[in-house]
Amino acid sequence: MKLKLKVWRQEDAQDKGGFKNYDVDGIDGDMSFLEMLDVLNNNLVNEGIDPVEFDHDCREGICGSCSLQINGEPHGPDRRITTCQLHMRKFKDGDEIVIEPFRATAFPVIKDLVIDRSAFDRIQHAGGYISVNTSGNTQDANSIPIDKQDADDSFYAATCIGCGACVAACKNASAMLFTSAKVSQFALLPQGKIEAHERVLEMVHQMDKEGFGNCTNTGACEIECPKGISLENIARLNREYLSASVFS
Amino acid sequence: MSVLESKIPEGPIEKKWTKHKNEINLVNPANKRNIDIIVVGTGLAGGSAAASFAELGYNVKTFCYQDSPRRAHSIAAQGGINASKNYQGDGDSDYRLFYDTVKGGDYRSREANVYRLAEVSSNIIDQCVAQGVPFAREYGGLLDNRSFGGVLVSRTFYAKGQTGQQLLLGAYSAMNRQINRGKIQSFNRHEMMDLVLVDGKARGIIARDLVSGEIERHSAHAVVLASGGYGNVFYLSTNAMGSNVMAAWRAHKKGAFFANPCFTQIHPTCIPVSGDLQSKLTLMSESLRNDGRIWVPKHEKDAKAIREGKLKPTEIAEEDRDYYLERRYPAFGNLVPRDVASRAAKERCDEGYGVNKTGQAVYLDFKAAIERYGKEKAFTSGHKNPSKEEIIKLGEQVVESKYGNLFEMYEKITDQNPYKTPMMIFPAVHYTMGGLWVDYNLMTTIPGCYAAGEANFSDHGANRLGASALMQGLADGYFVLPYTIGDYLADDIRTGTISTETEEFVTAEKEVKERIQRLFDAKGKNPVDYYHKKLGRIMWDKCGMSRNEKELREAMEEIKELREDFWKNVRITGKAETKNAELEKAGRVADFLELGELFAKDALERNESCGGHFREEYQTEDGEALRDDENFKFVSAWEYVGNPRDAKLHKEQLEFENIELKTRSYK
């Protein structure tokens, strides 16, 4: 396959940035999207041009590093996958592909396609934990049975990989899906209930402070989420938030 | 006379750890506030250690090259974590977990460390549940278990196929709590470039800010390296793209001995290589071997027809299939340990029975499991005479609930539906049992420099059992280091802050900068990947699943030549003062080019076959590994003396007082 790429290039956070056009040839359908970018980068190095910077690590859809906006969609045209799991068989010979970083005020560009997602970390610092010491002096793991449905729902919420596709997909650049997933994971478990009120208030407060937009229930986040995190989590966050605001 | 002092406590094995904890020095809470610890790497070992140190009151700095601690590669672990809870009542105990691990490691691990690991394993599960880790549960609300290779009990706790992710997010949440308290400063997108020694003790690191390119000095009273394994020396592996040996190798060059580098785990169930431009291999969890049956065609002509696309696997009759693991190892069947399963797959493919285009793949088939589960499900839901379609439909639902995400992942990569046609799998580099040599306290041969998790060598011998890496990472971080590090730091309560203005720091920084400059100065013609791929090829062909003297010698020469060429002809674009992925890769590959040579040397000098180390010269008549306990019952700890090939060997003799040394048999 031969492809025309339109790639966002930006020297650093201060630079204004813009699109550059590149052609790549010899792309095979079994290659992943990032392997296609590897080919581009090796070509660029051979020509003495700075390669395109992009975040990636595990290349199996779990670390949440990769983050590209491909033809206007976070993680590209396929559903329930990250960019590293997108394969070139989804494209055809001669296609033009537009590649940009995730766009959001709270995710400033570091270089080219690399963005700063530390705002997500700070939301987690604010309350994304259960205050238990790591001394091991806890009770036996089976001493509190947990309803299987609750445990499963908690697990599904916890599968969020923190990639930021929800923010990139949202017209308001809201981080509600991300934040609600963490709030839900703990709110559904007996261990997390004790600090539930404080947690939701702190995390939402931090989310607002970081400059993420508000949620207007459009639902684009759920569609673009590579892990299929459900909008039900946002409903649960709202419920938790309301109850915390009333009772604290 | 060996300089290796393992510091294994006296007394019966089940009392050693308790006795040791009672006797080591403690640091009082007020003094802990004046002591700094650096933790490099934020995976299960590093993340859990950092959180635990901070909770105890130490001031902690963590470093990771990823943009968040949560992305460390522990996150990709799929299948589960072992613990000797015996919730299933199937005869498990600390001793059995200890025994299985030592036997699984082919008797090349240290008994006392492994026993301690088994002893604290139950506590890990309690701890994680208290942190809100959503493990899989049964309908009664209690925790579920499954079985992994090399054992006869069900002791593996899991969260679907994302156990590593859930455990890492647990450790990360414990870190977050301490970050929020101001007790951990986390330096993300930072890479450790060198270890700094002051008066022979580890007192800090030189790090590069990967965004600004700035070279920074950080001091501490102790440095913990939890930087993972070195599987990427093979280029293609299941490791993350950024996984590297830099932290461990820098420490090695400063005096930390590197133990058993040739002990590498080749995992039997990975998605086969599809093309030359592939960058990474994907694991299919060992848990699949609970239900999947591994086979190749019984007749070579069928294998050939499949390779040519003239025959489909589903068209091959039951009696024309060779379930070779069940045939060779009836007692353990498809659940033999990883090294055994990998070699058996290679043997079949080498004989011409491989099934994909390249002939480098075998089948992992779920048809029998789907039928079995379907029948059971139909029966329990009242359909006593279900149709075949009904059975398959129900069976697929059960399999989906157990392995759904893995099947989905397989389909995304290969474009084939594993519910309808068997998966194709082949062994791939997955984990490195070797690593920095550590004593019972997890301290390396450099005072004050510790190694934890995959970065050390201590618990898995020559082969790691499935679901034991997560156990070891968390055991080291939550339950071992928080005790043992105090023993060392008790002498530092009057030291005060370590200055970064001393000559040692100045020199170390200068050396790091010069090294970076040398990489740019090569101004050659080849991108970094060119060298990494070449190195990977040598490693896989000559230091891979089976090794021999001739090829190991060749590997050492070829790696040396490649390294020399690298420093002359590598081409790094861009600048050192900005984000520069090529420069990051170059630094890592430069270290792999040294480690690779030591790896081959270690494999060459270990004249026996054990675990993942299979020397063709040392095998039984039916092709099983032939261990030599008389001459090789030791840990090879290598001291750096200038060139990887000149490394000096130190032997730690292994004593087996609680387990009788036997030929490992899974037949």
Automatic annotation (TrEMBL), chain A:
E.C. number: 1.3.5.1
Keyword check for Metal-binding: yes
Reaction catalysed by this enzyme: a menaquinone + succinate = a menaquinol + fumarate
Keywords: 2Fe-2S, 3Fe-4S, 4Fe-4S, Iron, Iron-sulfur, Metal-binding, Oxidoreductase
Key word 4Fe-4S present: yes
Occurrences of domain 4Fe-4S ferredoxin-type (ranges): 151-181
PROSITE patterns the UniProt entry points to: 2FE2S_FER_1, 2FE2S_FER_2, 4FE4S_FER_2
InterPro entries, alphabetized: 2Fe-2S_ferredoxin-like_sf (IPR036010), 2Fe-2S_ferredoxin-type (IPR001041), 2Fe2S_fd_BS (IPR006058), 4Fe4S_Fe-S-bd (IPR017896), Beta-grasp_dom_sf (IPR012675), Helical_ferredxn (IPR009051), SDH/FRD_Iron-Sulfur (IPR050573), Succ_DH/fum_Rdtase_Fe-S (IPR004489)
Manner of cofactor binding, per the entry note: Binds 1 [4Fe-4S] cluster.
Pfam families named in the record: Fer2_3, Fer4_8
Cofactor(s) the protein needs: [4Fe-4S] cluster; [3Fe-4S] cluster; [2Fe-2S] cluster
Positions of the 2Fe-2S ferredoxin-type domain: 3-105
Assigned protein family: Belongs to the succinate dehydrogenase/fumarate reductase iron-sulfur protein family.
NCBIfam families: dhsB, PRK07570.1
Name used for this protein in its record: Fumarate reductase iron-sulfur subunit
Species per Swiss-Prot/TrEMBL record: Psychroflexus lacisalsi
